[in-house]
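Objective 1b. Sequence-to-structure analysis of Cell wall polymerase.
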Amino acid sequence: MINQRSLFFNVDWILILIYLSLCTIGWFNIHAAVYDPLFPGIMDMNTNYGKQFMFIISAIILGVVILLLDSKFFSTFSPVFYGITLLLLVLVLIVGRNVGGNQAWIPIGSFRLQPSEFAKFSTCLILAHYISSTTLKMNEFKMIGICVILLLIPTSLIMLQPDTGSALTFTSLVFALYREGLSGYILVIGAILITLFVLTLVINKFLLVGIIIGLMLLVLFVFRESRRHIQPILVSITVGIAFIFCVNFAYQNILQTHQRNRIDVILGKLDDPRGQGYNLNQSKIAIGSGGLWGKGYLQGTQTKYDFVPEQSTDFIFCTVGEEWGFVGSLVVISLYLIMLLRIVNIAERQRASFSRIYGYGVASIFFFHFFINIGMTIGLVPVIGIPLPFLSYGGSSLWSFTILLFILLKLDSNRMGVI
């Protein structure tokens, strides 16, 4: 039997070093983002950077506790974790505090708990638990349906807050399902629908309908001698046209005004640098002004004079770009890419399907946050308000990402055993 000591020292220390490096980089950049000369100490508890230091220490302790637990604990109690987070998501709708238009936080004294962050690791666990314990195949309708339901419940509750950014995070778990056998056609269809969604917003809908019909008729002409292609082509035309009009309806009647404006800014349909495009405009200025080497620690003018809103949370990467420049930004991005590749490598070397599925879930969540957060600060995607893992200020997000990562580290440390 492998003893607990050997399991503890069998963890992937490269991943732990990357984790500690990102937490440290985040701490210093939060200090730079909200630096107050009246509270110059980097560990002053009256400031966000002082509080973040305590969050980091408590997160490390939490990580150590996870490594000391039995690996079977996480697979056995996956449904319990999932149930608890669902209850918290319901509770936040009743007693939660509304901040910035989102009722997403439960006040606990001076601390605010954000249940949507913890729903990420519990959903990864329940997916891994269900898929690894059933005899159904991923290409079976029942299997896909149950997985969709497991994802849809927390997503729907989070949308009621409403917190679109956190809700969209769960869509990334489709990559974990794909690794387990989900048809690649579903990913292709998803990519086509996303492309069609964007085209619907930038091209007149009737012109787009005409283009789709024209392309399908061309394909139909090419395959005119094969009758089996006629029905799928006609169905595709019908679905495509219906989707276009659904997008227009949803865009005008379901999305809130500020959400539509953020999308319009990215698509170039709205030029409002002092209004809806202010955050993005100031973000680009801050990152671009850093140049190659940056302005230096605590020397960022955009940062110092509070030009960029939410700079210690959603827009923390602006501080990296302005004060550490292209080189510093490249270092941070490289750390994330190495971390992602390391997580995928860890997932692939697992002997237990539960551990592998969970590992790909972790990789999917981290990739989504990394790509979307940095993408929105440089204008590649709309601003949807999600944190950058380990860098953004916040106890809930830091603890959630720490739990996600360290459960995987624990499972990996015991991969030679039976989970």
